[in-house]
Amino acid sequence: MWITEEMKQVLKPFSILFNGIELTDYIIPQEDSGRELMDREITTINVPGSAGSRVTGTRTPSRVIAQKVLVACDDAKELQKKLEELSGILHTELPVPLKFEDELDRTYFAMYAGAVPGYKKNGFYTATIQFMCSDPYKYADPIAFNFVNGDAIVQNNGTASALPIYEIDVLENITLLDIVGPDKYIRLGEPAPIDTPNYERQTLLFHDSMRSLVGWTDVANVDNGYVTGSMVATQAGFEASSFGSEVPNRKWQGPAKRRTISNGPVQNFQMIATVELLNVNVGKQTGMIEIYCMDANGNTIAKVGIEDIMQSISEIQAKFQLGNVATRKVQHYRTADYKPAWNNYKGVLRLFRDGNRFRPYFGLVQPDGKHVWVSSEYMHVDASNHYAAPITHIHVAIRHWPSTTPAVMRVRDLKVWRLNDPIEGTPYIAVAGDKIIIDVRNGLVLLNGEERDDLKDFFSDYFELPKGLSVLRIEPFEKVSGKVIIQERRL
After folding, report:
1. Cis peptide before 97, with omega less than 30 degrees from 0?
2. Cα(357)–Cα(380) distance, rounded to whole angstroms?
3. 364, part of any domain
4. Which of 110, 136, 162 is a domain's end point?
């Protein structure tokens, strides 16, 4: 007896959104506590010879919201399945947004902290769910203030200081970004002396939006399988329009294409592909997306990919491999730290080679561009220079296992950069078209969605904006545009 739309119309349950999920699809809320007047801790000292005590400080403790709930099902078996699903929703690694119907313009950031069980019989269960808010404040909806001719005037009407997010679009190459407040500043990069040159650490060689097959040719061979079927280019990217008839001696099969790298060959490089592998029907679909970096003789120098190769579960893993398949000695496979997190993968595959060091990078890309569930810690040092040949072209392969339903797979975008050798001078930290986000609340710098805390000057501060009016300055304002986003805080 899942809570149907008809039941909602009769019961009119109180809406609760946890991490964007409507909990009343699983529970019937009852009374709650913890959203009223907050507690306050006051520290004092006693002074001999004086009456009473002296206040030395105050502190606002964490907030705990207790929500009583009823879960109603047809029988005990259905109840256990429903509680299992609810548990999967509630167990998050970090605090997530929590909203209540009677104050939808306010957001708490909470983690599930356990449940105090009440009554349980047959298909009925009552409990008090506890949400712990380590940040006791509730946040209003975001408000944006644009920088105009370098200045932004920010009005904070909350009852506490605001923790801003700065969204900056880079219009021209920059070595420095300053955001200056009345008494503090945030600095990324470094100023460039007028008598020294600036340089780009990397140069874009080609960018393909994967909406056309022009420039791409057929591939004869792929690793551990067959080239079959057809590739098409749609507005969403490269897709397999067919995987071809099943080939005897089953292996992974599907279409593949290749393209020469413009202005190649390239020695030190960065390659990034934006891909999707949507294994939506649990345990029933297979899929494999691979990006090969090839030399002039058709040898595989390096390869990255993602795949769902499991028979009865949905589980996407990423892979990094060096060399031709017949003599391959370097292979690295991994899943997300939380294995289901990469299912329905919408993210990036990235590969760096700098000197004799290779580093793969895998991560999901959120709608706001931020990278999450990132794996980037692995690095291989090619001490014997077995994989040192310059790369001249890229292969893209999309495959599945015969007789299984193929996952929805796309390659949406592909870029290759040359990594330039450092010179005497000041490096650009961002180039035209880049997007920088500075998140004061979480202490993060993001460059095109990737965490780049290394860009922040050690002596600058992530500063809060006080109640009332603040005037902020951004430099160099003629080379960037941007805005300040705040969520007013209240207890």
Report:
1. no
2. 6
3. no
4. 136
**Same structural domain, 393 and 262:** yes
Total of domains in the chain: 3
Q: What is the pLDDT along the chain (491 residues), one digit of tens a residue?
A: 455 555 555 555 789 999 989 998 888 898 999 999 888 999 999 989 888 899 999 999 999 999 999 988 888 888 888 888 888 889 988 899 999 999 999 999 999 999 999 988 888 999 999 999 999 999 999 999 999 999 999 999 999 999 999 999 999 999 999 999 988 999 999 998 988 888 888 888 989 999 999 999 999 889 989 999 999 999 999 999 999 999 999 999 999 999 999 888 999 999 999 999 998 765 578 999 999 999 999 999 999 999 998 877 888 999 999 999 888 889 999 999 888 889 999 999 999 999 999 999 999 998 888 888 899 899 999 999 999 999 999 999 999 999 888 999 999 999 999 998 887 888 999 999 999 999 998 889 999 988 888 899 988 999 999 999 999 999 999 999 999 999 999 98
SS (H, E, C) 316-353: EEEEEEECCHHHCCEEEEECCCCHHHHCCEEEEEEEEE
pTM higher than the cut 0.90:
no
Task: Answer whether 375's CB lies under 8 Å from 363's CB.
Answer: yes
Only one residue has tokens 């793969």, namely 360
Domain that holds residue 73: 5-136
**Does 104 fall in a domain?**
yes
